[in-house]
Amino acid sequence: MVDPSLHHLSRLTAVELRDALASGELSARETTAHFLSVIEAGNKQLGAFVTITAEQALQDAAAADGLHAKLNREGRLDELPVLHGMPTAFKDLTDVAGVPTTHGSAALEHKAAQEDGALAATLKAHGVISLGKTQVPEFGLTAYSENRVAPPSRNPYSLGRSSGGSSGGSAAAVAAGLVPFAPGTDGGGSIRIPAGACGLVGLKPGRGVVPSGAGAGDAAKLVVAGPLSRTAADAALLMDALVPRNEAPDGGYLTHVGRAPEPLRIGLSLDSPWAGAYPFQIEEEALDALTLGTNLLEKAGHSVTEAGIRYDNRYPEAFTTAWTAGVGSARIAPQREALLTPLTRTFRRRAQQRSALKVNEALHFLRQFEHDTVTQYSAWDVILMPTLAQTPRPIGWFTGGGHSGEQWPSEWAGDADEDYKRQCEYAPWSSMVNVCGLPAISIPVHTTAAGLPMGIQLIGRAGSELQLLQLAAALAVSFDR
Fold this sequence. Notes:
By secondary structure, this protein is α+β, with helices and mostly antiparallel strands.
């Protein structure tokens, strides 16, 4: 039974909360009010939310309760939406009707969206209640969620450190219990990086699996939406809403997530396509997580062997060209360009100076890179590496701002190329998965001596999202706060 005081409501898994809402044991309104109170109490310190939409959320909750009462009277509760009354939040890159979308940029005019974007529309149709918009980096470009719009998103395990990016605000909110789960989007690691930093399960589905998660103006087809959650089952529940029923496994993801997969051949690799341009060091804590993850996988019956992967050294330039192409065409008034962060301003200028031919050459190279890399990966069922090469970084570490966890700078110091280099060294195993269009998952497996979470990343074959979730469930390492 759910504690009537609701004191422990934030401790429920998303699946447990969904069941309580569906049965009527909890109302959508009391659930929404509870999570809004948790946000009010914790967000000022955490910086996870940029905008809180309490009034609209309570109206939507009342409507959800009305639907539940109607269907209950008619004996049709089985027709409830799969996520009936479930509170969540959307990244501030996703349009939500009536709410400003800042894209994390002070250079844009923040007008309320006229209608829901595809991702918000899909999840609302399945019954979710949006509590607001979460913090992101400017235009979602970076592996940390700091910008000039609002205070940075902080890591719930250590407030002086970053929650990652670009889904950093959403990850912080889930890890701190401000929402039970949340959708993220991932074009170069933006689900897996914050999942790794915040001790969450973070699934990046394969290309095309989640139709509503595709990125507008994403010529390289890098961006896809996926779940951020505390458990594999909670991620599976969200996947059941994100993926069209006729394209999901028979019975859905949640039905099958608890079944252990057959023994798999897992290739362990520390190779990275960024190593030539940005030689990086792997911290001991990341290697500890990898060792523990390897042991857990072997204990579960899988074989783990070393995998040597060869990457073309032209990758860094090609990926950067494709990744930053969109920022060059963003509509920004000339007088507001100075409000861009140094990294955005630098890469925007370069994108505008780059010819269409250069962009097309980069896209052509990435398609060949995809073919070559997928061919190499296919010698194994799954590829394994740490999620991140380093522990969660201090706030301001990437930008060189030098501010402590208790301060927010008025001026951004720092060099854009050094910023980018540090990101590539921090998360050297993320972006190539987007280029390949493959599914990948970050799974928390380790806590450092300083109390910081560390995870492993598993890259699966095309169509293996359920298998990756089953692996995460089998490891069953809980990082509940």
